[in-house]
């Protein structure tokens, strides 16, 4: 009995917010989907990360096993660098820096989108507040204050959309901030990995010699 009642109350709540609830819920769905996917990827990648010298040892032993056992960003950096490095250490350093920057961009992808969507949510709620108050004033201008049901409908739309916008925005901003922090830590680990990778490969003879 509780579950149908809860569903009915949610539907009534959604309907009370008016048309603004549709883009607001769509925004919420997109934001949470991106956040969950990004969070899961961060967790999976973190568990597979290993030091640069171990990556090189596995890579030289069996590249297929290396690809399956490493974090995706480690494999991408390692495979690109090992395939393109040359005899010039300075050129290798610049090339590794370029590869790392591409991986950093991938690591931070969608986090900005999540934060932007979270910031848009209360603005949509405010838009709903404005439309609800306009509806209320229209009712007052036509019927005065005697039509309590019509007045309640406009006021309900204004309050529900404001509440919904904040409910979407606050967790989104918190989650986006956590993901941003994880992304910054990942960028720092990428930098350390690249430093270790170059130190290890500088001791080796360039490929092709």
Describe this structure in words.
The chain has eight helices and no strands. The protein has 209 residues and is an all-alpha fold. It has a domain at 23-118 and 171-202. Helix 2 runs parallel beside helix 8, helix 5 packs antiparallel against helix 6 and helix 5 packs parallel to helix 8 (148-202).
Features:
mainly alpha, 209 residues
Low-confidence stretches: none
Taking Cα atoms only, what radius of gyration do you get, to the nearest Å? 27 Å
Structure classification: mainly alpha
Average pLDDT value?
Answer: 83
**Gap between N and C termini, in Å?**
76 Å
Number of separate helices: 8
Topology:
Blueprint: H1 2-16, H2 21-48, H3 52-61, H4 63-69, H5 72-84, H6 89-108, H7 111-143, H8 148-202
Helix pairs in contact: 2-7, 2-8, 3-4, 5-6, 5-8, 6-8, 7-8
Concise overview:
The protein is mainly α and 209 residues long. It has 8 helices and no strands.
């Amino acid at each position: 009995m509780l579950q149908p009642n809860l569903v009915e109350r949610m539907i009534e709540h959604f309907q009370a917010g008016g048309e603004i609830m549709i883009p607001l819920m769509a925004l919420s769905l997109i934001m949470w989907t991106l956040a969950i996917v990004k969070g899961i990827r961060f967790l999976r990648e973190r568990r597979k990360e290993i030091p640069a010298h171990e990556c090189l040892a596995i890579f030289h032993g069996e590249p297929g096993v290396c690809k399956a056992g490493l974090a995706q960003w480690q494999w991408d950096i390692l495979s690109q660098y090992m395939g393109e490095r040359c005899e010039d250490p300075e050129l290798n350093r610049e090339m590794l820096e370029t590869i790392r920057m591409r991986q950093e961009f991938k690591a931070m992808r969608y986090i900005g989108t999540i934060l932007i969507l979270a910031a848009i949510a209360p603005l949509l709620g405010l838009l709903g507040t404005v439309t609800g108050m306009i509806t209320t004033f229209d009712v007052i201008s036509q019927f005065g204050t005697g039509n309590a049901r019509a007045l309640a409908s406009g006021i309900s739309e204004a309050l529900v959309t404001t509440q919904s916008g904040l409910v979407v925005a606050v967790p989104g901003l918190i989650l986006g901030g956590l993901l941003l922090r994880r992304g910054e830590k990942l960028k720092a680990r990428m930098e350390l990995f690249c430093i270790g990778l170059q130190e290890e490969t500088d001791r080796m003879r360039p490929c092709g010699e």
